[in-house]
Specification:
Number of helices: 8
Number of strands: 12
Helix content: 10-25%
């Protein structure tokens, strides 16, 4: 009987205690913040109802891709409504905006929705990283290598053919989350890249540097040059681990950590003789 009595007393005390809050039910609406009125993309920040940025003529073009700015706060049902009107919602953009694909009739209907603040063209200027937007005019004749991310629904082969007319296509990479092309061309032709409707984003190709030699001894002993885990024979051989994520760099742009020229991995499956990836799978019921 004592446990029940204690529970009863705790309940009674809790009803009037200032330190034991009562549970309340109801709805919660986040506060509207000043930044909700703005769109921030590729170094630009603007209130679309007050005016959009003045863009260079060569970085402005029409396409089926639009920015849809919503009246914040944004709720999940809003994107479902957009999609019910035929808009393909692609990616979130601060603040409370999305990149979406739609035709003119769909755009007109979406602009009239009560929770939509503004719909404007996803301009080529918004596809260039800020450093490239400046560099293209400062050194137009210089060549560089660029990471070109495509809209995922676009055909890779057709996109590569269009990119090849502007520069040299060096590599392509696809996963269940992105399509990326490495392109070399002059800085002065970056506007042409950005104006391709298939392109979502352009930035400098990152130069990879090996810098993990210190991490080896730091994580094993914290004594420089001493790798006790390895000297005791624990080096990863014969061990199998699993990771669940949106994918790893395989295909034509395979990460050096998992590269095996003798066993190329170009799709899902089991690869028992691969030196690193013995299985690369998408599970039934997944969004991939």
């Amino acid at each position: 009987m004592k446990p029940l009595l204690s529970l009863f007393l705790l309940f009674v005390v809790g009803l009037s205690s200032p330190v034991v809050p009562l549970v309340r039910t109801g709805s919660f609406e986040p506060a509207a913040l000043p930044e909700y009125d703005s769109v921030a993309i590729a170094g630009y920040r603007f209130d679309p109802l007050a005016g959009v940025p003045e863009l260079p003529a060569e970085l402005s073009a029409e396409s089926d891709y639009w920015l849809v700015h919503l009246k914040g706060p944004v709720y999940e049902y809003m994107t479902r409504v957009l999609e019910s009107y035929g808009c393909k919602v692609i990616q979130y953009v601060p603040f409370n905006a999305f990149i979406g694909r739609m035709n003119p009739d769909q755009r007109q209907a979406i602009e009239a929705l009560e929770f939509v603040n503004w719909v404007g063209q996803y301009e080529p200027a918004y596809k260039l990283s800020p450093e490239l937007r400046q560099a293209r005019s400062q050194k137009p004749e210089a060549r560089g290598q660029f990471l070109v991310m495509l809209f995922y629904d676009e055909d890779l082969d057709a996109a590569v053919a269009r990119l090849a007319g502007i520069g040299t296509v060096l590599e392509t990479s696809t996963s269940n989350a992105f399509k990326v092309v490495k392109v070399e061309t002059e800085f002065g032709r970056l506007a042409e890249l950005a104006c391709l409707s298939v392109v979502q984003w352009v930035e400098p190709w990152p130069e990879v540097e090996h810098c993990n030699e210190n991490a080896q001894w730091v994580t094993q002993t914290w004594r420089q040059g001493i790798r006790r885990v390895w000297t005791r024979g624990v080096n990863g051989s014969t061990q199998v681990v699993n990771t669940a994520d949106t994918g790893i760099l395989m295909g034509s742009v395979t990460h050096d950590m998992v590269r095996d020229p003798a066993v190329p991995v170009t799709t899902w499956g089991d690869f028992p003789t691969h030196r690193k990836v013995i299985g690369y799978r998408t599970w039934s019921g997944s969004s991939a």
